[in-house]
Specification:
- The chain is of the alpha+beta class and 352 residues long.
- It has one domain: Trypsin-like serine proteases (Thrombin, subunit H), CATH 2.40.10.10.
- The chain has seven helices and 17 strands.
- The strands form three sheets. It has a seven-stranded mixed β-sheet with strand order 3-11-16-15-12-13-4, covered by helices on one side. A six-stranded antiparallel beta barrel has the order 5-6-7-10-9-8. It has a two-stranded antiparallel ribbon with strand order 14-17.
- The relative contact order is 0.20.
């Protein structure tokens, strides 16, 4: 007859207690790791990366799908409701950053003019050079039809990564969109650098399964085109994760409207703002978000917020992306804070 076994949890408890007794008798100091609190664990779980992979190299199929007519007819993206608010990010993964750089074929900027504040977005006219070459339209398909957002090229080991908003890749209710195609330096139908199709996409689980706006961010790895990766052609922006909330940031996007409303906004032109960012709310009830005064509306979703963008070099540090306006009649715009969720999403796309 076999001896009955102890439950595994009880056996572990006896083992830990025995080790503690032995260490105390030996005069050693015992450090017992505490389990994370339920709130800390919930925050970590919501910041994990959810990953969606393409079943095969469907590059040609997606290119064939996106005819000029379909691109023109794509609808501006809207932000789904926040179904579940996850605990704030903890920053436990630490700060990390990397610089931007020009691509092999990128033209260096000719402009050196710098503004400190512009909240009523203006048309960006310096195309064919950084930073415009690193920003473009992102086309994709939802169950109700074709849509579009904005995305930007970010530095990565695979030279194939673009960054956008979580609501440009998922409905925030557990479902992924499809058919992503990126057109860098898009301008009024012109696609001077061609198009690049998706290979892999990630967004935080807290966004995929609840629409948590503190985690409204996403990264997409793209297939090479004609043997070249997108960043090698366009150049790329740097990034800063788990840093602060206060930046002097340029914002870029392709809006179809503005907040407050203005006329003449077509969605076919790259627009920009620049200004100081801040952490909204009143401590200790502040969300893990950043605010900026910029009137860009639908279509600019996912557009980059770039700190330390020196126009003479064409690159800065990605510190945010266009998420939503808390008030349609105000130019206050929000981005998720790039904390642990950004680190996890970025890392999920590095080996692709």
């Amino acid at each position: 007859m076999s001896r009955p076994s102890l439950p595994s949890s009880f056996a572990r408890l006896i083992t830990v207690a025995a080790l503690a007794v032995w260490a105390a008798g030996a005069g050693a100091t015992v450090a017992v790791a505490e389990a994370p609190s339920p709130q800390a664990q919930a925050s970590a779980d919501a910041s994990k990366a959810a990953v969606h992979r393409s079943a095969a190299n469907n590059d040609k199929e997606i290119r064939d799908y996106w005819t000029p007519a379909r691109m023109r007819a794509a609808k501006k993206e809207t932000v789904p409701p926040e179904r579940h608010k996850a605990p704030a990010q903890l920053g436990s993964l630490g700060a990390r950053s990397a610089p931007g750089a020009p691509g092999q074929h990128a033209v260096m900027p000719r402009s050196t003019v710098t503004l400190l504040s512009l909240s009523s977005s203006a048309v960006w006219t310096a195309h064919g050079q950084m930073p415009a070459t690193t920003v473009g339209k992102l086309f994709f398909t939802e169950p109700d039809g074709d849509h579009e957002c904005t995305a930007s090229v970010i530095g990565s080991a695979n030279r194939s990564l673009i960054w956008t908003a979580g609501h440009c890749v998922s409905d925030a209710n557990g479902h992924w969109y499809s058919n992503w195609m990126f057109a860098p330096d898009y301008s009024d139908g012109s696609r001077p650098f061609g198009t690049w199709t998706w290979k892999n996409v990630s967004t935080p689980t807290g966004y995929l399964n609840g629409g948590d706006r503190d985690r409204d961010l996403a990264a997409i790895a793209l297939w090479p085109r004609n043997g070249s990766n997108v960043a090698d052609v366009t150049g790329w922006q740097g990034y800063k994760f788990n840093y602060g909330y206060d930046w002097n940031a340029y914002e870029f996007g392709y809006p179809y409207d503005t907040h407050p409303a203005r006329s003449g906004i077509t969605g076919q032109q790259l627009r920009w703002c620049v200004g100081q960012t801040w952490r909204p709310g009143i401590w200790p009830f502040q969300p893990s978000q950043q605010g900026i005064h910029c009137d860009q509306g639908h279509g600019a979703s996912g557009g980059p917020w770039l700190d330390d963008l020196q126009l003479a070099r064409g690159w800065g540090y990605l510190v945010g992306n266009v998420s939503y306006h808390p008030d349609d009649n105000s130019d206050e715009e929000r981005s998720p804070h790039f904390g642990d969720a950004a680190v996890n999403v970025y890392n999920a796309e590095q080996g692709v």
